[in-house]
Design brief:
The complex is a heterodimer of chains A (about 525) and B (about 450). Chain A has helices at about 75-90, 110-115, 120-125, 135-150, 165-180, 200-205, 225-230, 255-265, 360-395, 425-435, 465-480, 485-490, 500-505; strands spanning about 155-160, 190-195, 210-215, 235-240, 265-270, 290-295, 315, 330, 335-340, 410-415, 440-445, 455. Chain A is of the alpha/beta class and about 525 residues long. Residues about 520-525 of chain A have low confidence and may be disordered. Chain B is α/β, with parallel strands linked by helices and about 450 residues long. A 7-stranded mixed β-sheet of chain B has the order 1-7-6-5-4-2-3, sandwiched between helices. In chain B, strands 10-11-13-12 form a 4-stranded antiparallel β-sheet. A two-stranded antiparallel ribbon of chain B has the order 8-9. The N and C termini of chain B lie far apart (about 60 Å). Classes of the chains: A alpha/beta (about 525), B alpha/beta (about 450). Chain B: One of its GO terms (biological process) is nucleoside metabolic process.
Chain lengths: ~525, ~450
């Protein structure tokens, strides 16, 4: 029996009725709402924007006026609002929970940065406005460039690359340009890449005609220096190395590696995806690096936005600085000037990576992050990220299996040997984390470890948050060892969707909605 | 520090659990020569107010588009963005989510990507579209590389009226990739004939519509000429609003369509982030760069979405991938998709008509200024004027009169005397009759 409050309303939970529907009429489950595609919500003729039809005029389209309908659906503003709010509710996000994706750096995204990027002086200026009308925008880029150069100890930076992989391309093009200047572009075509590298590294080298030669790792997760040195020769253009590496370890022989590649006449490209582990404590310029991209969306916390936009400025050593691409900013006679063409300033730019000046919106956010943290806060953030990862490693290595001895840097790597014989697959383990309210860690990367699980907590988690995460993983690992396979094999049970059929998606690709062709998701959409 | 939750006490407890005496021990693999003991010579941490003050001071030195009569285009356009767009893209669940690698808990992102792909296919008149590239220029570069893969040929023919920055991006990739490139000289009158340059070695012809001078053309004959030689036609759309009024490239015979999607949902942002659009014929889908979202079902048979055909991509294929792209423009796609959903068929096509009507009115107003000649017969929301004085000087003089009057084409093509007196002028829905009158008046004064 429910109890009553003073106004005679029932206050009980209702649990005693025993009614627990598995299927609802709408397909919704409380706050988890089923939502059709926007095209299935069409009220023909409706619009969420009020625009007045222009007065009669004679078009000047030269006979290429569009005929017929496009097929876009019509919706009012509240309908559009509700549609996208409902979609948002099906997403996991850093703001809602720990997001331990190794190599991806899901740290807190301060909203001050969003506010700053939306100042009309930054968000509402055109890249081709006269330069005297955008002096503050040029100053911002120049200021961010200064911070990046100081933090890395490198003399030059190309700001325009649009994301990490684009930065890699920029760095490798600068290396190729330097080789050309030496007359060696035809002979040095081999790039050495550790087998633990991000996929973008070999893809980048191959995109501009280099051949990729893989360097093995040692048993303790580092570059095999002996094997690396044996591969050096007059045909080697560069080494592409991630540091800290993708196993979460600092390459302790890095200076020796840099010296060796330079001695052999090659260049040292560093993938800076993991710079967030060492910012403020180590300057890549002191390690002998010639070029390194910096993912502003990782280290300097510009939001990942569901897969971009990012930004990937590239710092250069003295040897590569002259070849940096257009455009760049100079400060002279009290004014800022964007150099947009070869010959307007010194240097032998290799070309242009993209239209305009790069990801200005990300620059503003990154600089707001840097100004907020300062030199001291940036160092502290790196230390906290490393401390948190080591705390996880130390707290889990007895129940999960860590292939390498600590200490690690900003991410803790585990393999799946602890699941051997339990009947629980590695992927199932990850999917069971979803039911516990966590986004899984990076799975099956790096490739050098069997069933890799790469956990990056970042500096944004409190100790309580880390402790609950650790306790949850301990519980899952112990549950797997007890043989409770059903907790894993069908997981996730409690997410907006159960396991999705990726094989079907690839075998019969449906990449767009077409009228009458796609089946609605639920009764609500019928 | 307000962003760092760990307390001194927490840190001590965590170090104890690890068995380390200090955090320095965790950095012991760093070679001694490279360890920084002190702080880097940069300012120290600051509160929100101080940061805001400093950045607002920088922002205050710029003239925002919304403050003046504004007519600058050439690849980025000032449009009105409904308030709903910016509210929705700032929702935590969209803003602070990663690439949807775990589809069960990222259906929000995946579904909007699927909607985005559908919208881009519809607008361009193509069969499939990907989940975005960085921007229009890099999408253009990737399209050329894709055409080389599809045709197994190595020569691209570029229109001289392709945006010069886009030309540079293609040239850069061709240069380092050892591909051949034939680039026509720019043709301000818009009568360029490209068909003669296409031969049996040509993988693709790249043409922009509307072009850098604003000319709008029927490209069907060019498509036929390309196809006759076994080459593909790549059409670049720099202003996506134009497709509300112009025949889509797919209907003109395009094989690949790339574009800049900034105009829908995305601010000017001094050049980025923007959103690259990439659409193609279905038969080329396995040669496409970038992410693709596809429909599937879950274990209970419910419709859901996943990233698919990822065997094209770098994280699986490494050096054999179709592109090195990883991060793209997720949140900018969302802004595009929401803005277009708000507009709908009626709103989008009307927006295009307003843009064209405004540009026609502006062309008439500027054309009436003594000495000014409008070069275009057919255009959408941008056209080119020829002035009796150098364009760069005219634009600078207009700034003094409080008008941002366009892009002097000498800025994009320095050293080309033909460009010296030409200005690209854009007019969108944001321009009022007063703005146009102010421009015409100021131009008359500047040229007097």
């Amino acid at each position: 029996m429910s109890s009553m409050n003073a106004k005679g309303r029932p206050t009980g939970t209702g649990a005693e009725t025993g009614f627990a529907p598995h299927e609802t009429f709408t397909g919704n489950r409380g706050l988890v709402q089923e939502e059709p595609l926007i095209f299935e919500l069409d009220s023909p003729g409706a619009s969420g924007v009020d625009l007045d039809e222009p007065e009669d005029f004679a078009p000047r389209l030269g006979g290429v006026a569009r005929q017929g309908r496009i097929g876009l659906p019509g919706l009012s503003e509240p309908e559009v609002m509700r549609h996208y709010v409902r979609l948002s509710q099906k997403n996991y996000a850093i703001d809602s929970g720990l997001y331990p994706l190794g190599s991806c750096t899901m740290k807190h995204n301060p909203r001050l940065n969003e506010k700053m990027a939306r100042l009309p002086g930054f968000g509402d200026v055109h890249p081709l406005q006269p330069q005297q009308t955008v002096q503050g925008a040029l100053e911002l880029i120049d200021t961010l460039a200064h911070w990046l150069k100081e933090l890395t100890g490198m003399p030059a930076v190309a700001m325009s690359p649009k994301a990490g992989a684009h930065g890699e391309l920029c760095g490798m093009m600068a290396i190729d340009a330097a080789l050309r200047a030496r007359g060696e572009e035809g002979t040095r075509k081999r790039v050495l890449v550790p087998e633990s590298a991000h996929g973008t590294n070999p893809a980048t080298a191959a995109q501009i005609g280099f051949t990729v030669d893989s360097i093995p790792a040692t048993e303790d997760g580092h570059v095999d220096v002996k094997a690396f040195k044996a591969k050096l020769g007059p045909d080697v253009a560069a080494i592409m190395l991630t540091n800290p590496n993708t196993c979460g370890l600092f390459e302790r022989d890095i200076i020796e590696i840099a010296d060796a590649v330079h001695e052999a006449g090659g260049y040292f490209y560093c993938d800076g995806a993991n710079f967030n582990a060492i910012a403020g404590r180590v300057r890549p310029g002191d390690l002998g690096i010639d070029a390194m991209h910096i993912n502003l969306h990782k280290t300097f916390s510009t939001p990942h936005g569901g897969g971009g936009p990012g930004a990937g400025p590239v710092v250069f050593s003295q040897a590569l600085a002259p070849f940096a691409p257009l455009p760049w900013i100079v400060h002279e006679k009290g004014a800022y000037r964007a150099i947009e063409h070869e010959g307007e300033s010194t240097g032998q730019p290799f070309g242009r990576m993209t239209a305009f000046h790069g990801q200005m919106g990300m620059f503003v956010r990154a600089l707001a992050y840097m100004l907020s943290h300062g030199a001291d806060g940036i160092r502290q953030a790196s230390e906290d990220a490393v401390l948190s990862a080591n705390y996880i490693l130390a707290s889990l290595k007895d129940v999960m299996s860590a292939p390498y001895e600590g200490p690690c840097m900003h991410e803790a790597l585990f393999d799946d040997s602890f699941l051997k014989g339990t009947g629980v697959e590695t992927l199932d383990f990850a999917k069971a984390m979803i039911d516990e309210g966590y986004h899984p860690m990076t799975m099956y990367f790096p490739l050098v470890v069997h069933g890799a699980m790469l956990i990056e907590p970042t500096e944004s988690e409190s100790k309580d948050s880390l402790d609950l995460f650790i306790a949850t993983l301990r519980d899952l690992a112990e549950s797997a060892k007890r043989g409770e396979t059903e907790r894993f094999s069908g997981a996730p049970y409690l997410a907006p969707r159960r396991r999705l059929d990726e094989t079907l998606a690839a075998r019969k690709p449906i990449l767009r909605w077409q009228h009458g062709r796609n089946e609605p998701a639920s009764k609500a959409a019928e | 520090m307000r962003y760092l939750p760990l307390t001194t006490d927490d840190r001590a407890q965590m170090l104890a659990a690890i068995g380390a005496k200090s955090v320095d021990e965790l950095f012991k693999d760093v070679p001694e020569a490279a360890r920084l003991d002190g702080l880097i010579d940069l300012p120290r941490r600051q509160g929100e107010m101080e940061v805001e003050r400093q950045l607002a001071a920088m922002a205050g030195k710029n003239i925002p588009a919304g403050q003046v009569p504004f007519f600058v285009g050439a690849g980025a356009y000032k449009h009105h963005i409904p308030a709903t767009v910016d509210h929705l893209i700032q929702r935590s669940e969209f803003l602070t989510s990663y690439t949807p690698y775990q589809p069960e808990i990222t259906q929000g992102t995946l579904q909007y990507l699927f909607e985005f792909q559908t919208q881009v296919s519809m607008l361009t008149g193509m069969e499939v579209a990907n989940a975005s590239m960085y921007d229009g220029s890099t999408a253009c570069g990737e399209a050329v590389l894709m055409a080389h893969r599809v045709t197994k040929r190595k020569k691209a023919v570029l229109s001289g009226n392709l945006h010069p920055h886009y030309q540079d991006v293609v040239a850069n990739l061709s240069d380092f990739g050892s591909y051949k490139l034939v680039t026509e000289p720019p043709c301000p009158k818009g009568t360029e004939g490209l068909a003669g340059e296409i031969d049996e070695e040509t993988s693709c012809v790249v043409v922009q519509n509307p072009d850098i001078f604003g000319h709008v053309r029927d490209l069907s004959a060019l498509a036929e000429a390309a196809h006759a030689k076994g080459a593909l036609m790549i059409v670049v759309v720099p202003e996506i609003v134009s497709l509300g009024l112009i025949t889509p490239p797919g209907e003109m015979g395009a094989d690949i369509v790339v574009g800049e999607g900034q105009s829908l949902g995305n601010g000017l942002n001094f050049g980025g982030p923007y959103v690259g659009l990439f659409a193609a014929k279905q038969k080329f889908v396995r040669q496409m760069p970038g992410r693709l979202c596809g429909e599937t079902v879950d274990a209970e048979g419910k419709r859901g979405f996943v990233l698919t055909l990822s065997t094209r991509e770098q994280h699986i294929r490494r050096e054999k991938a179709t592109s090195n792209i990883c991060t793209n423009s997720g949140l900018c796609c969302l802004a595009f998709t929401i803005h277009l959903s708000l507009l709908g068929e009626e709103g989008y096509t009307r927006l295009a008509r307003i843009n064209h009507a405004n540009a026609v009115k502006l062309a008439d107003a500027l054309g009436a200024v003594p000495g000014v000649n409008v070069l275009n017969e057919a255009f959408f929301n941008e056209f080119t004027i020829e002035t009796p004085k150098p364009g760069a000087e005219v634009i600078d003089a207009l700034v003094e009169k409080g008008v941002l009057g366009g892009v002097p084409l000498s800025r994009l093509m320095p050293g080309n005397d033909e460009m010296k007196n030409l200005i690209a002028v854009a007019s969108t829905e944001v321009n009022s009759d007063q703005d146009r009158a102010a421009y015409a008046r100021a131009l008359k004064e500047v040229l007097a």
